[in-house]
Amino acid sequence: MFYREAGQFKTSYVADSQIFPLRQDRIGMAIGLAIAFIGIPVLGSEYWFSAILIPFLVLALAALGLNILTGYAGQLSLGSAAFMAVGAYAAYNFQLRIEGIPILVSFILAGLCAAAVGVLFGLPSLRIKGFYLAVATLAAQFFVIWVLTKFSWFSNDSSSGVISAQKLDLFGYAINTPMKKYVFVLAIVTVMALIAKNLVRSGTGRAWMAVRDMDVAAEVIGIPLMKTKLVAFAVSSFYCGVAGALYAFCYLGSVEPDGFSLDLSFRILFMIIIGGVGSILGAFLGSAFILLFPIFLDNFLPPLATLLHLPLSGSAVSHIQMMMFGALIIFFLIVEPHGLARMWAITKEKLRLWPFPH
Questions:
Q1: pTM of the predicted protein model
Q2: pLDDT of 37-49, one tens digit each?
Q3: By 3-state DSSP, what share of the chain in percent is helix, strand and coil, each rounded to 5?
Q4: d(CA 339, CA 134)
């Protein structure tokens, strides 16, 4: 009975259309943010910040960008890692070549550079779609990595293309510890997730969903297909570009073009498939699952193999992880195409009726 809306009366359209219409959701979100911003920095360890929480937030932001394009606009893309690479190298060059530029401005400009590249590779979406569009965006994955490797100017004349991110400094405040980097990344991801949530609820988001459901019908009712698709590519690439900048500056510190490989693009795609296509929450659930599930298997499988007297090497654990990822993707595509986010929504719907059967 604790998750009911009895007694919560909405007397205006604004109250009815707010992001969290139920008081319980607003309280839960406030508690979650308080734990994330206050509780975890106080109680967390450097290992959790560096190895789990920061990569979780960065990859969740990249998955959020891909979800805007694939989940809401219906345009397939396999170049997410390439747009992250553009963001990482662009932020590095802005910091290197423009003296005194604030780090946040560098990240915004890096996102805009990634958006420009995303629009360039999104132009084929005006003529092709589906599998053929995925292959077209796959070209971005190889072209961007080739450019960053071939032209040493982007890496400040490094022969290997490796760059070392500059020190983070926010208005004179040094962000030099894992805890500070975590809070910095968390603040950026929170703001961008809120913007994305409002964006998909706006007229632009409704146009994306109309194009996703049936582009011919959307064009008939007056939605400009070219503008709508290219805006989706631009916004998605902007999010991936900012995620790439955070990936370089707050997570790894030193990156190379080959680090933004096709494997990373597939990981981001798996995140939205498992988390939930067309869901802001799904990007975070999928990122958490992809990052935490291998850690769980690494700690669970060796003791299980010892208990059962089975030989299990490190490579076997890695292969089992890949097999289970494949099986889970097939499971979600068949049983619940909308992923973990839909399962959470069904749970909330049941709680609103509990303990009554209907």
A1: 0.91
A2: 999 988 878 888 8
A3: 75, 5, 25
A4: 21
CB neighbour list of residue 122: distance below 8 Å, 6 or more residues apart = 75, 137, 229, 230, 232, 233, 234, 237
User: How many degrees, rounded to 5, is the angle at CA 335 between CA 330 and CA 337?
Assistant: 75
For the segment 129-150, the average pLDDT, to the nearest whole number, is 86
Cα distance between residue 265 and residue 138, in whole Å: 9
What CA–CA distance (Å, rounded) separates 287 from 339? 12
| Range of weakest confidence among 72-86, 160-174, 315-329 | 315-329
C-beta separation of 117 from 94 below 8 A: no
128-164 CB burial, b ≥16 within 10 A, e <16:
ebeeebbebbbebbeebbebbeeeeebbeeeeebebe
The pair of structure tokens assigned to 231 is: 């805006």
322: helix, strand or coil: helix
Burial 34-50 (b: 16+ CB within 10 A, else e): eebeeebbeeeeeebbb
Q: How many residues does the chain have?
A: 358
* Average of per-residue pLDDT values in the chain: 86
